[in-house]
Amino acid sequence: MVALSGSCPTLFSATLLKDPRPKDCGQPTDFAFAMTMQRARPSLPSDDKRWKIVNATMRRTGYAEHALIEALHSVQDAFGFLDEDAMIFVADSLDLPLSKVFGVATFYHLFMLKPQGRHSCVVCTGTACYIQGAGALIEGLEQRFGVNPGETTEDGALSVMTARCVGACGLAPAVVIDRQVSGKLDSNALNAKLEQEIAQ
């Protein structure tokens, strides 16, 4: 077993395999030299057992690039949000550029980059929703709860976010409250709905 150092360490394992061909086949060798190359995986970010769950998810999918979203969901399910260390670990494990992992994490509104409040409100800012008043909803949330998109109230009750599209253009302006889509709300109706959710 030989380990090569560098920014992308690689492990090489060499195995001598017995040649299955008859000895009288006229071939000059009795052994075939087989070498398999496997990329070394990064160490877990910490001793927290939740990282083992995350790593097991990626290992189950063969550390495939197409499993990026599943890997990010695994991190968020385990820790509640995606921080820089988590995205670096996933990027290194799947051999992906950090920029791609960050791009996916910021594109989908269900991924959180900071610890979240007990309740969440995602305002869609896609074209249809923006035309129908998404900006007014955001302003109303700031005035009522004192938070801008990407922030959480001081008491940890509510996190406010925006998304490029939540796939509910027919309900514009659409919002997602605690993962439930609501639509056609004005600022007063949205604030009242959130106050009701927080009070429960």
Automatic annotation (TrEMBL):
<dbReference type="InterPro" id="IPR042128">
    <property type="entry name" value="NuoE_dom"/>
</dbReference>
<dbReference type="GO" id="GO:0046872">
    <property type="term" value="F:metal ion binding"/>
</dbReference>
<dbReference type="InterPro" id="IPR036249">
    <property type="entry name" value="Thioredoxin-like_sf"/>
</dbReference>
<keyword id="KW-0830">Ubiquinone</keyword>
<keyword id="KW-0408">Iron</keyword>
<dbReference type="Pfam" id="PF01257">
    <property type="entry name" value="2Fe-2S_thioredx"/>
</dbReference>
<dbReference type="InterPro" id="IPR028431">
    <property type="entry name" value="NADP_DH_HndA-like"/>
</dbReference>
<keyword id="KW-0411">Iron-sulfur</keyword>
<dbReference type="GO" id="GO:0051536">
    <property type="term" value="F:iron-sulfur cluster binding"/>
</dbReference>
<keyword id="KW-0479">Metal-binding</keyword>
<dbReference type="InterPro" id="IPR041921">
    <property type="entry name" value="NuoE_N"/>
</dbReference>
<protein>
    <submittedName>
        <fullName>NADH:ubiquinone oxidoreductase 24 kD subunit</fullName>
    </submittedName>
</protein>
